[in-house]
Amino acid sequence: MSAETVERPVPERLDDGRRRELARSLLAPAALVLLVVYFSLRSDTFLSWGNVTAFSGQAGPLLFVALGATFVVVMGSIDLSVGAVALFCGAVAAWLLSDGALGGFAVPAAILAGAGVGAISGAVVAYGGVPSFVATLGAMSILSGVALKILRGSPLPFTSPATSDLAIGQIVPHVQNAGLWALIAWALFVVVGLRTRFGLYVYAIGGGEPVARLSGVRVRAVKVAAFALSGATAACAGVLLVAQLGSGGPTVGSTLLLDSLAAIVVAGTSLSGGRGGVHRTLLGVLLISVLANGLNQIGADDYTQQIIKGAVIVGAVLLATARRRGEVTK
Fold first, then answer.
1. Which of 111, 113, 103 is nearest to 161 (CA)?
2. For 135, how many CA atoms within 13 A lie in the half-sphere containing its CB?
């Protein structure tokens, strides 16, 4: 009889935990709906086809960056160099396109360059034992400097109709190709993250690196691959941005680090690793992109947008911390 008394509250506590978890998981979708309603009431052009088309072009590069960076975050690391990689690879693409020597190989060359610098950062973390924060912070400084050297501190224009169409063309009406390619990449990476050995290893490392290593996971190789993937997707974003602009410039990718981090965290991927995943990242990108687009529509300045995005990151991290605390005290 006493045993029954002890055991009865356990399912109730578990049910309460599930309800709290469900409530928190609905916060991001609810916030997205509220933002859409609010901005549509504040601006007559927010839901216009012209703005929808522009929105798809704005969200595409951000989604690309966030996809690769999510794998790194799930692994329990962080990549602070994604904006600099986008700038560097965008500068490389613009330089090659303006020179005309490589022609159609400029885009894959830039993406390979991004994967390469990402792999170097991963090797520094995995084999050098340097914290990812420090390694990618250094990479951010180096790549930004190299990119500005290539650009000589000013925009570098180029003429390439095929490259421009790669980003701003519309295979699907009212959806710029930049957004379409990003959606296709998201669907592919969802499969990679949830259905492949690489994806499972990333979660295993984020859940507990020593345990993953004892289980036979090649931790160092997976880390290098994850950072290489992050570099490649950041490079894709950089290429799309310069293709949209028709030139490489010193400000390309300047907001991608903050925006991608906000999108990853607000979607429910834990900065401590092992939780969330790329399947959630699309929702976070939509929320951050709607927020930025809506603020632009109502005339909010860049400084206000930075404040709001920073507050979003802090709030999302606080919610995640509260969730973990609740689980510990059950």
1. 103
2. 22
